[in-house]
Specification:
290 residues; alpha/beta; Rossmann fold; Methionyl-tRNA Fmet Formyltransferase, Chain A, domain 2; seven-stranded mixed sheet; 9 helices; 17 strands; 27% helix
């Protein structure tokens, strides 16, 4: 079975590896163009491109190159760009999506599942359609969300997606007889800087969920402080207060409090919240966060 693979981030690599390790012929890998990264601004390939090159697979940045291939289908995992309807008419495509559809169609399904407090999420392999994540379902698999970070959950789902994809390709029944999506449709909007900005109006639970996404931050005395990890707190504190209580740094939220564990002050490296607090120059008697 000749295949093409469309993907870009690290989360797509396990599916590509799974196909190659299972013996499928991947005739072409299509990924997003190299991007400038880091302080030097040097061009760097996507994780999928690096993986494909290591596997000795041909790589392209042009969707139009699919039209020149004689393949049975393509596999799409977090490619990052809408596939035109004309190409879908030429090449049937399977899409590995990191949610249990139709819940969390869209760009950030894992992060939105965490923010919403979902107990479970999962992976769905669908037939790709021109409309957003609407295709019929070939297979779905579930995992518990628990207290996992987005990074950990994405890694788990990426591995699960690779195995689910192989199940579909190995089963004529699953491949040829997908079922329609059923249930309430929700959309996973992109995560923005505003999403990750912690504010005192948030509940303690929402603060903790946002921290688990990675990139959460707040401001103290107009200085940005990244919050890399936090945990529950039973301390009673007024909203927007920031205090040292029994050896811990506590944030007051709209309905309680949260304990800072690891932070990254602007212009500095990661450190414990205790070390950061000890180095604060501001008066700590009535410190506020925003």
């Amino acid at each position: 079975m000749g295949l093409a693979f469309l993907g870009t981030p690290e989360a797509a690599v396990p599916s590509l590896d799974a196909l190659v390790n299972a013996g499928y012929d991947v005739d072409l890998v299509i990924t997003r163009p190299d991007r400038r990264r880091g302080r030097g601004g040097e061009l760097a390939p996507s994780p999928v491109k690096r993986a494909a090159m290591a596997l000795g697979l041909p790589v392209s940045h042009r969707l139009a190159d699919l039209a020149d291939l004689e393949i049975e289908r393509a596999v799409v995992v977090a490619y990052g760009k809408i596939v035109p309807e004309a190409l879908l008419a030429m090449v049937p495509m399977l899409n590995v999506h990191f949610s249990r559809l139709p819940r969390w169609r869209g760009a950030a399904p894992v992060q939105r599942a965490i923010l919403a407090g979902d107990e479970e999420t999962g992976v769905t392999v669908i037939s790709l359609e021109a409309t957003l994540d609407t295709g019929p379902i070939h297979i779905e698999r579930s995992v518990r969300v628990g207290e996992k970070t987005a990074r950990a959950l994405i890694a788990e789902l990426a591995a699960l997606g690779g195995s689910a994809l192989l199940e579909v390709l190995a089963s004529p029944e699953l491949l040829e007889h997908p079922r329609a999506q059923v249930g309430e449709v929700t959309y996973a909007e992109k995560i923005t800087k505003e999403t990750l900005h912690l504010v005192p109006e948030m509940s303690a639970e929402l603060v903790l969920r946002t921290v688990r996404l990675g990139g959460a931050h707040l401001f103290v005395a107009s200085k940005r402080v990244g919050v890399e990890s936090a945990r529950e707190s039973q301390v009673e504190l007024s909203p927007a207060s920031l205090a040292w209580v029994e050896g811990e740094v506590i944030l007051g939220t709209s309905d309680g409090s949260a304990t800072l564990v690891e932070v990254r002050p602007e212009g500095s490296t990661s450190m414990s919240a205790q070390a950061w607090w000890a180095g604060l120059r501001e008066s700590k008697g009535d410190l506020q966060w925003h």
